[in-house]
Amino acid sequence: MKMKNLKIVLTSALLLFNWIAYSQDRGSIINKSGFSVAVGLNQIKEENLHPKVHAGLLWNFSYARDKLKSKFSSFDINIGYSEVRTQLEDLNKTVNLNLLLQYGYTFKLFSSEKLRDFLGPQARLNYSLAFYPNWDESHLYWADYWSAGITNILVYNINPKQNIIARIEMPIVSLSSRPELNRQYKIDETSLTGVINNLHSNLQFGSVERVFYLTAGFEYQIVLSNRISEAIGYSFQYARVNASNGNPFQNINHGLVLKIYF
Q1: In the chain, what are the domains?
Q2: Rounded to whole angstroms, how far apart are CA atoms 217 and 40?
Q3: Chain-centroid distance, C-alpha 260
Q4: DSSP conformational letter for 13
Q5: For 8, how many CA atoms within 13 A lie in the half-sphere containing its CB?
Q6: Cβ-based neighbours of 161, under 8 Å, separated by 6 or more
Q7: % residues pLDDT > 70 (the chain)
Q8: Is residue 248 classed as helix, strand or coil in its secondary structure?
């Protein structure tokens, strides 16, 4: 009788140990920091300038920190660089710079053995700055916003060493900055103080009629060693920033992503 009880205790302990190890391994890929490089296509339309679409190669570099327990939190810093042109231009002289900082904190909606679904709020700060020397050598053009929105994250666990993560994000309310259609000065102030002041001028508050973006993507994650994991994925974003005293800025970009977690 004692031997039988001992076997039950040992078997239970072994099952508990395996469950703990599996649970820890299951989240180990996600509970890490990571650097990524993305290359893709960037298309922008600055209607304060003209209705032509500028397109070109996009390079994006980012740092991210994801934490997954009963909730899923993520912090991202992204820097994008693109040289674009219209079909009327021979050379890519227009430069577009983008800086994005965002933080999301999501709560579990659904959970099964393989699939988990998280939904929650997200805060985003985005700066987009462009210079069009062939069209306007005197002014910079920008489409900046600070938004509060929602993010939905799906985590599919293939096995303890492989995950697929899909995300979708969109805003609810935003505070945005756009240049006025008719500039007060013929030439912008090019000092650092002048550029910063311009990037935070003409502030307007609104909802999706003022700022709208739809960001979506997925990545396949795999453990390479005890310390390093990697992921490959795809990202897409459509964004529109509008002002009551000007025309909208629109942006579409696609990217293939390579990420290293550590």
Answers
A1: 2-261 (2.40.128.100)
A2: 13
A3: 16
A4: H
A5: 5
A6: 25, 29, 222, 223
A7: 88
A8: coil
Vertex 102 angle, CA 98 and 108, to 5°: 145
Tell whether the torsion through CA atoms of 228, 229, 232 and 238 is positive or negative.
Answer: negative
Residue range 88-109: average pLDDT? 94
Q: What is the DSSP string of 157-197?
A: EEETTEEEEEEEEEEEEEEEE---SS-SSSS---SHHHHHH
Per-residue confidence (pLDDT) for residue 122, from 0 to 100: 97
Inform me whether the pLDDT recorded for 90 exceeds 50: yes
β-partners of residue 82 are: 58, 96
* Residue 202 Rama label (left phi>0; alpha psi -120 to 50; beta): left
Q: State both tokens at 57.
A: 């190669």
Q: How far is Cα 100 from Cα 146, in angstroms, rounded to an integer?
A: 10
3-state secondary structure of 242: coil
Residue with the two structure tokens 């529109």: 240
Average pLDDT over residues 162-177: 96
Average pLDDT of the segment spanning 227-247: 93
Rounded CA gap, 60 and 104, in Å? 20
Residue 108: predicted pLDDT: 93
Strands (E), 85-114: 94-111
- The rounded distance, in Å, linking the Cα atoms of 253 and 236 is 6
Q: Can you tell me which residue has the tokens 């909730």? A: 71
pLDDT at 102 over 80: yes
For 116-154, give one letter per residue: b (16+ CB within 10 A) or e.
Answer: bbbebebebebbbbbbbeebbeebbbbbbbbbebebbbb
Query: pLDDT for 6-35, tens place per residue?
Result: 455 445 544 443 443 333 334 445 678 899
